[in-house]
Amino acid sequence: MSEAELVRRLIAIGWRGSRAVRLGPGDDAAFLRGGLVVATDLAVEDVHFRFDWITPEEAGFRAGAAALSDLAAMGAAPEGLLVSLAVPDEPKLAEALQRGVRDAGDRVGVAVIGGDVSRSPGPVVMDVVTVGRARTVVTRGGAEVGQEVWVSGSLGGSAAAVAAWSAGTEPDPAARRRFTVPPDRIPLGSGLAGAELARSMIDISDGLVCDAGRVAEASGAMIVIDRDRVPVHPGAALDLNLALEGGEDYELMFTAPAGAESRIVALAQEVSVTVNRIGWVEEGTGVVLRDARGRRSIPGRGGYDHFPSPGSRRGR
Amino acid sequence: MSEAELVRRLIAIGWRGSRAVRLGPGDDAAFLRGGLVVATDLAVEDVHFRFDWITPEEAGFRAGAAALSDLAAMGAAPEGLLVSLAVPDEPKLAEALQRGVRDAGDRVGVAVIGGDVSRSPGPVVMDVVTVGRARTVVTRGGAEVGQEVWVSGSLGGSAAAVAAWSAGTEPDPAARRRFTVPPDRIPLGSGLAGAELARSMIDISDGLVCDAGRVAEASGAMIVIDRDRVPVHPGAALDLNLALEGGEDYELMFTAPAGAESRIVALAQEVSVTVNRIGWVEEGTGVVLRDARGRRSIPGRGGYDHFPSPGSRRGR
After folding, report:
1. What is the predicted ipTM?
2. Which of A131, A207, A255, B84 pairs as cysteine with B127 (C-beta 3.0–4.6 A)?
């Protein structure tokens, strides 16, 4: 069973509808009456990170920043974090993880307001709860035909670091830093939401193609991505496949009305983030990649290999 | 390092104060502006439960009910749960855990509004986030000299079940049920808070003596408990030590003004919960036990064994 299918089943088991809840499970966060936005995000040792790759402080920072990314994707402003740590009986390790999460909170101006800690005989498990506020939220379901597709920052750096570690080599420093320090997109996300420029939004945690597919599914539309417009992170050595399929970028993908380009670019400049228009929304379903000659292909397991990027063809 | 000391250190690392936060970490839940109450509670396989003791559905229910107990102890009304599951690659197991948590939510009328799931190479780790509302909350710090100490239900049943399993025997059915089905004290907790009868409150998760000690510490006062008044769960076979020191009862201990007895009993009857007055608040620090002759003793590691209960003296 795929993770996506498991998530669907878990949601079907747990969700009943509720007067108190304006948006239930299935998006980046839940949205409750009173403007409360809440999400939770797991980081598991040897699944999401390894201690022979990064330090406990870095693992904590990463977990905290990744969790906050869910709030950014809703256009919410954070108010606090809660941290649950299931850890071996090593207080110093727990304290280092907590310092890392704390630092991720500090970066966006919020404290750790609660949590839990337990001894565990297994790997370190961190669950970071993010609590924030928004007047309205931007969901995955707002993409409409004619809108344009945008992405913040650049993609693939984090996956490049993982690929290097997995191959037994040290990653490029820029790629390593991308893995250990996910970007803060709270100002961009809340700015886009407040100005009603973003009509759908998601944070890219499982790869651009995968997360674009979630927006397409939630919106009942097709997302077309111009391969040549996808910004590849410097640490990914021009490998477009890493940018398309690699995960844990924690950048934002959003759709916006056509003609909003100058306002979007101005807003992004205000918060010192680069943005790129990478595609548009059409009638249909799923995600389609388009090359420079206008030829279309459907990405998938290995499907993207039929159209190797310049970076993966040459030079390596 | 004790768990209490580790918790103190983690709080010191993470907490900074915040305008958005009316009550930070260190109580049963955090309290934010807008009346939001939020807490998180870990349940770790082979630490909090074992699958040769209970089923996955029971483990999920227990985790959900234990998490909701934190809201009860604040006097808050729940609005939703979020469930993070770090589990082996067994979808059926994850679904069974989710059904259990869902059922605990159903019991108090709330749904699972979000969460996360990850494969894990280790034991099952569940983190249940509870979100609720309250106008004001009842903290651990409101005990004052002259108030009386009350406890809901009866204590020691859960610990009796764990003791039986640990000895390789099957627990008494009532004790087993106490472990698998923590009580719902939301109506009592919110009733006591709403009527301003409870001035301090905590849920008994680590044993009456331990949790009373937390209230004493947070309030800067001494809690005196009449040993003979402590209600022992039928499944605990009159073993007062289990009631005093055994954990995971998920009953409420609260302090109330003297003279409120009739109102408290009436309110408890309305929600079909028994309550017992077991002591009072004095000047001083810590927790003191008082026997029928008025002799006082300080409980502690093994200290309570100096005053064995009738149940542990005779008959076994």
Report:
1. 0.92
2. B84
